Amino acid sequence: MPGSMKTMGVLTVGALVAVTAYTVALGSNGWLWFGWVVLGLLTLGMAASRST
Questions:
Q1: Which range marks the domain in which residue 19 is found?
Q2: pTM, two decimal places
Q3: Alpha carbon distance 14, 6 (integer Å)
Q4: Which UniProt key words apply to this protein (predicted)?
Q5: Distance of alpha carbon 31 from alpha carbon 11, whole angstroms
Q6: What is the tally of structural domains in the chain?
Q7: 3-state SS of the chain: helix, strand, coil percent to 5?
Q8: pLDDT in tens, 19-44
Q9: Do residues 12 and 43 touch, judged by C-beta distance below 8 A?
Q10: Helix axes 2-26, 30-51, angle to 10 degrees
């Protein structure tokens, strides 16, 4: 599933940009950063399972 991995990567980077923009504009929100970390870990997990 190469398309799904690319989609997850784009979604993760897009979420990072959105959370960073939110933080700059309105201040930090721990739940947003927590959500982004979880999304990043899921993306890394998908990449790791794909490479094995």
A1: 2-51
A2: 0.83
A3: 12
A4: Membrane, Transmembrane, Transmembrane helix
A5: 17
A6: 1
A7: 90, 0, 10
A8: 999 999 999 899 999 999 999 999 99
A9: yes
A10: 160
